[in-house]
Write the C-alpha cells for this entry.
Amino acid sequence: MHLGLNHSEADRPVLEEGVVLFDNFDDQPESVPSLCIAVIGATGELARSKVFPALFALYYSGFLPQNVAIFGYSRKTLADEDLRSMIEANLTCRVDHHENCEEKLNEFLKRTYYVDAGHDNKDGMAKLNSKMAQIEGTCAANRIFYLAVPQEALLDVALPLSDSAQTKHGWNRIIIEKPFGFTSLSSQRVVFSEETSAETQGRYFGNYGIIRDIVHSHILQTIALFAMEPPVSLDGEDIRDEKVKVLRSMRKVDIEDVVLGQIKDTSGDVDRYTKSMTPTYFAAAMYIDNARWDGVPFLIKTGMGLMENRAEIRIQFHHVPGNIYRERFGHDIDLDTNELVLRDLPEEAILLKVNNKVPGLGLQLDASELNLLYRDRYDVEVPDSYEHLLLDVVDGDSHLFMRSDELAAAWSVLAPILHEIDQKSVAPELYEAGDKGPINAYYVAAKHGVRWDDGC
C-alpha cells in the first residue's frame, strides 16, 4: 500500500482507508531528479529482512536511479556504519546475477545513511529532511517513505513527516503496511507492519487476528483480481475499477459457512491462551452474485502454523454429466476432479490436474498432473514481492495497490462476519502447529461440493 502526500498545509494527511497515488510536482528544474528513500523503523524485522534486501536487489539490477540515497530512521542511537553493517548482514546477490556483486554491494552501502529520530518525531523528521536536502543539493528531488512501524505509531510518524520531511521540488510517496484498521471506521486511521513469528502470534492472540490481517488485505484482493472482468485498459484505475465491482458483488457470508481456528499457544502463557478467542485460522465459503460467477462457491482457507506454507488458487471443474468412463477408473472418480492450480508459494507454478488414459492397449483412466514450474522453465530467479512493490512505487504504478473504495468494499464483506462472531461469541476450534487445521473446514467444503487438497 502506498500513499502520495501533498505538502500543502490544507492537505495535511487524514490517512484514508485506501490510497490513491498523488504526485506533487512544483516547477522542477529540468534535470534528472534524485530519489531519496527513507525506511521508517529501520531496525525492525520487516525493514531488515524484507525492505533493505529488496532495495538492494532493485539497485543491483539497475531499477533504481544511480543518484538514489537510502535513509534508515529509528529511535536507536546508531551511526551510519552501524546501519550499514546491519543491512549487509541480510543482503545477498541473486543467484543469476553474481557479477560485480561485491562492488555493487559496496556502492549500495555507501548510499545508505542513518537518522536518529530521538524521542520526538517532529525533531526527527526535521533531521531527516535536512539530511535528505544535503544529499539532493539544488536538483529536483523525489522522496519515498516506507513506514515499517506498528499501527499505534503511524500518526505520530505521518503527521510530522507531512509537516517537515516532504520535498517541495518533486513527488512524495508513502508506503504503509496492512492490515488497514480494526474495523471499517478505524481503517481510516491505522495500519500494521510485519513482525517476527513470535510477535505475530502475540498480535493474533490479541485483537487483530487473521481475518483482519490476511483475509481482508490479501485473500479478498486475490479473489478480486482473479474474478474481475477484463478492464478496458491496463491503467491502474481501470484495473481497480473492476476489482471494486467484484468486492461489491460478494454475497453476505453465512456464519454457518465460516470455520474459525486457533493454534494452540506454545508460549506457556496459559492466561493469555485461555482468555483469547482471536482466530489464527479462517475458512469460509463465499459467493459472487454476478452473471459470470452466479452459483460458483469460492472456498478460502488461511491459517498460522499449518502443515504447509502454500499460497495458491485451485479451480475445480465439474464432472461431465453421465460420464461413460466412470467404470474405467481404477479408483473413485469423485476423488479425482480436474483442477487448474495457480501457485505462488512455495514455488511459482501453473499446474493442470487432468484425468487421462493410461498408455497401453487397455482402456483405463488415471489422474495426472501437467506442471509448469517457473524455476524449471525460466533460468532466472523470481523477484521477491517487496521488490515488485517498491518498483511499482518508484514507477508510480498503482494497479496492485488498494484504493479507498476497495478497502471500504472489502470491509463491507467482512464487517458483518466479524460482528456476528463477536455477538455470538463463536469459539475457534483448537489445532496443533504443523496440523491441517480445524476438521470442520472439510465439512464446509463438502457442503458446497468442493474438495480440499489433502496436502494443505
